[in-house]
Amino acid sequence: MNDVATPTGTSMDLHPRPAGGTPTPWAFPAPERGTLDNGLTVLRCHRPGQQVVAVDVNLLAPLDAEPEGLDGVATIMARALAEGTDKHSAEEFAAELERCGATLDTYADHPGLRVSLEVPASRLSKGLGLLADALRAPAFPDGEIERLVSNRLDEIPHEQANPARRAAKELSRELFPAHARISRPRLGTAETVARIDTDAVRSFYAAHIRPATSTVVVVGDLTGVDLDSSLADTLGVWSGSAAEAQPVKPITADDTGRVVIVDRPGSVQTQLLLGRIGADRHDRIWPAQVLGTYCLGGTLTSRLDRVLREEKGYTYGVRAFGQVMRSAPDGSGAALLAISGSVATEVTGPALADLWQVLRTLAAEGLTDDERDVAVQNLVGVAPLKYETAAAVADTLADQVEQELPDDFQAQMYARLAETGTVEATAAVVNAFPADRLVTILVGDAEQIAEPVRQLGIGEVKIVTGS
Amino acid sequence: MGHTATPPPSTGGLTATEHRLANGLRVVLSEDHLTPVAAVCLWYDVGSRHEVPGRTGLAHLFEHLMFQGSAQVPGNAHFELVQGAGGSLNGTTSFERTNYFETMPAHELELALWLEADRMGSLLTALDEESLENQRDVVKNERRQRYDNVPYGTAFEKLTAMVYPEGHPYHHTPIGSMADLDAASLEDARQFFRTYYAPNNAVLSIVGDIDPERTLAWVEKYFGSIPGHDGKQPPRDGSLPDSIGGERRAVLEEDVPARAVMAAYRLPHDGTRECEAADLALTALGGGESSRLHNRLVRRDRSAVAAGFGLLRLAGAPSLGWLDVKASADVEIADIEAAVDDELARFAAEGPSAEEMERAQAQLEREWLDRLATVGGRADELCRYAVLFGDPQLALTAVERVLDITAAEVRAVAAATLLPENRAVLAYEPTDSADEHGDSAEAAVTAPAGSAGSTAQEENAAEEAGQ
């Protein structure tokens, strides 16, 4: 035990760093799987103490299925589900939901559409009833569809003005072939959204929304809840035709190393987004890629922030991540592998130079065993924290369903991470982030940053303005 | 070690016990064995309201320095050790307090206590000029990223300055000004630590899968020898007249994507029935998709993309209600303000309907359940009530206090406070009036409702980790 001088001149006792105790075993929850008579798949999971129940519904309505020229119809339809049913007007429906203390969110993305209900367990039946009405019998009133379309058009300039969103849009446009839906904005463009009307929404609903191709995930404290009976009375009365297979086109991308500067005059920071595509969850290197990517840029103590933030102070934080765009057993899917963050305008050149140096050093020297060990301990150790809430568990289960993964994928993932060695993690992250095959989007003041960026020699530099 | 209080009547099965070390450190424990995790939360009773003129932003900059090492914790090891143990962590600074928190796998609880004690007792042995210079740059980039480089990003800062007069401790926001951040010296930081970072100016809460006796023994072992001291000056008086006493208004011509109206009202102090009533009033008026402002502006008039109210609860000064309306294309500010005034006046005259009360209470109850769904959320609330109101047990009955408010009280607070003479208004006019619809980006605009007050009221030590 040592003494150390403290601010007031007295002292505190110093003790050696404690060793941890014995871990309590924890496993990612295994859902119980079933099917209702109408073909709706049900996953349920009892999480004691979680009084807000999360209900996620996956609907097999990928953006690829949007008709030509109607990009955004999936989003408008998804939003319109909550704008009135055969029992309630749009205003009444919103009021009924909030009366249960519930929230209902919809999200249309490339693999499909997600509807998420969160509701206190005491009002679960009522919440399920409203959710079922929205899916089973949406009214799609003309006036509400018109309003959603004009509202969506009004949102677009706000997204354009946000540097992170502007960068994401530009990366999709650069990376993917122009004919692929995934190259175009997820929520449509002003031109395509303006064309959407009630007929388009009704057609999309009729073609893609049915119980037989849908899955509902229910997670929370289900003590005293007769879920079977609640489901039978609500989502169980939803009817629709049988499932049909959707053809899926593989995701391809051009990752030739190059730079696109989206000019945003007067920006005090440059938003960085560097990306390409790579292995998704069906690829057996996924755990190694997760591990290596964490070591590169998962947190403040990862390689990127160690230099760019904690040594140089160029940024509040830069992250590397792998985000599944679509994942399927046939290998047609992909994950977006990216590095993102923002750096002060005047140090954009030096920050990118350092970033590339981090990538080159990683490729040359690999990860250390210590780095690998700490990363595994974190990624595996945080699981019980990460999955404390019902919503976190439900989201992961719903993602697994959407990506055609087994229900125990996440549970197995922790074992696979623990088995992944330094060499595999190094190989995966070096393959994922090759210094010469990254498409770099910079949203910032072109006049100030273009020249320093050209001098880096990280690829041809193109400057775009406007949309 | 002090006495153990008798647990009070519980809410939702939650209980908490209170203890005090000889050096004045207050300790709150709450057991929950459902998941093998434990949260440690430490609130220091110091925030931006304690800062002196010319040193705005110092409390938050100092919070960053708390992660730069102490006697036995070199460099970034605080982050590395917690993450390596499978924990997650951060720190935040607001007007009224600075908090630090770790959520750990239960068997690593002792490590988090050791780390917090080490920096509470010995930070100054490690604090140096290099850390200060580095974190000064990081914080300046945090300011750029979150406020200066974002459309409308400085609105909250401007409104705060209009609602709380020059010289008032809440006149400036926690992020501070660039000039003051530049001016902060190592001696300022040392003096700040000596003044405020004492065990008798802090509350430590520990929530989760813990053994209370063993936990208290660890707390005594690690924190018990840190000397208390009483160098702290009370914060400058935050009391103000209930009303601003005349509308303050600024028209901003900026490069923003659309017209917007933002306003801030002086509301009753946190901890009073009137504050709970104000929360219900703002919820009924602008807290969701069935609120009066949403129905009027977004649904019926179609004059706004989004319209909502947020509440920033403050204990040491009047709370702040924040209105945020983003205009639809071609809608004039005057039309939006007229509609808002009309709705506020009507609400003040007639009060909420029984259905509106039921909805508002159900929503606030669910928000509480969400906050209490994690051990970290519970630990933070226990600290909040202990630091600001002297009694952590109040956290366990917070929902009851919301449900106890009557419609008459809600009407009364609206009639007394939601008045033109009690607000500051920012009217945004885009500089580029030829604002054609651009292309779309990757995500929807976040609705301001509910989140309005949370964007600028507190600052984090680090970006949330990915994965």
UniProtKB/TrEMBL annotation, chain B:
Key word Zinc present: yes
Keywords: Hydrolase, Metalloprotease, Protease, Zinc
Domain Peptidase M16 N-terminal per the UniProt entry, residue ranges: 26-164
Keyword hit for Transcription: no
Domain Peptidase M16 C-terminal: start-end pairs: 185-364
GO molecular function terms attached to this record: metal ion binding; metallopeptidase activity
Region feature (Disordered): 429-467
Family membership noted in the UniProt record: Belongs to the peptidase M16 family.
Protein name, entry field: Peptidase M16
UniProt source species: Streptomyces oceani
